[in-house]
Amino acid sequence: MLQMSGQIDPAEEKDDVQKPDVVPEPEQEKDGNPTPENQPADDTSEPEPEKQPADDAPKSEPKKAPPKKGAPSKKGAPPKKGAPKKGPPKKGPPRKAPPKSTGRLLIGLLVKIAVAAAVVWSVFTFVLGMSVHYGNNMFPAVHDGDLLVSLRMQKPYINSVVLYRINGKTEVGRVIALEGSVVDIAKNGLLTVNGVAPTAEIFYATYQAENSSIEFPYTVESGKVFILNDFRDDTNDSRVFGAVDKKDLEGPMLFTVRRRNF
After folding, report:
1. Which helix (H) or strand (E) holds 13?
2. Residues 251 and 164 sit within 8 Å (Cβ to Cβ)
3. Cα separation of 255 and 45, whole Å?
4. What are the pLDDT digits (tens) for 247-257?
5. Structural domains in the chain?
6. Which residue, 87, 127, 148, 179, has most beta carbons within 10 Å?
């Protein structure tokens, strides 16, 4: 008899009975995990992604509850008899305002006239000056009967023709010197300002006024201007009453309107 396991049990020799070979059990790993033979194979395949519903796919609308029995349906319901039809409201003809009374019209007209008059008065009081000139003291620049309009807001300057008030009257003259300047009139009719003859084209000689208290050379006071007439034979100017205060000026002449027989 062959020895399969390498040793023979003495009991078996006595009985002379052969026992089946014992299959050795597989050795287990030290950590207690099953051997690779009993371990299932790793599933390396990735799980399939779940299918997402497409955005374009129509979404299922919630089901509406069926109408109750006996309830009238809104769609296709016949309109009630005598009910007005729905639609845009009709616009009627515009209503005419009631005619104003004569008293109201008259009051409105008077208010407009008063407002216009106030505007004109403000303009000619604070902005413009206007005067009709009589005389030839400013010939040939200004003629007798001319309508003069001046700009009050503009400051006077050398050789400017200005409107000014003196002794309660509005006069016209030419500014030849400002404050601080020295005016001298020689006996031979030569006029100088600060030692220089003015550049204005005046064809008349300038002489001192007779019986006047003004002495030359004359220094123009602060806040005043020295004014002479273009027609120098007429001495009714600063040669008689001295320099004119700037507060009495109505501004340089803006334009003139020639008039005759007025």
Report:
1. helix 10-15
2. no
3. 107
4. 999 999 998 88
5. 131-257 (2.10.109.10)
6. 148
